[in-house]
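Model it.
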Amino acid sequence: DLDKVFHIYYIPEKYRTYYPLIYGSEKGPLPNATWEKVSSITKKLKIPITNLGPIFVREAKRYFLKENQFIYWKDDIHWNIKGISLTAEVMCQTIKELKCIYN
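Modeled.
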């Protein structure tokens, strides 16, 4: 039931997250057709959506440059504890009903 969907989070692929860090400005941005389609559908359905893409790109760069750390496992497409914590923080900021206490 769509009436039970309160919020959607658009999760970027690992390659999208690290693309700007790897290629910098020498290559243009990747097309974002999937995000555009999903966000247009959620807008029609009046369901709030958060694009984690820009947040992941920013934080992946910060973690790598400051701490030589990643937010995904190096040998896998899944988040490590830093990626999980980042996502939890964003969810707590966007869904106030969760009443999170986050440090």
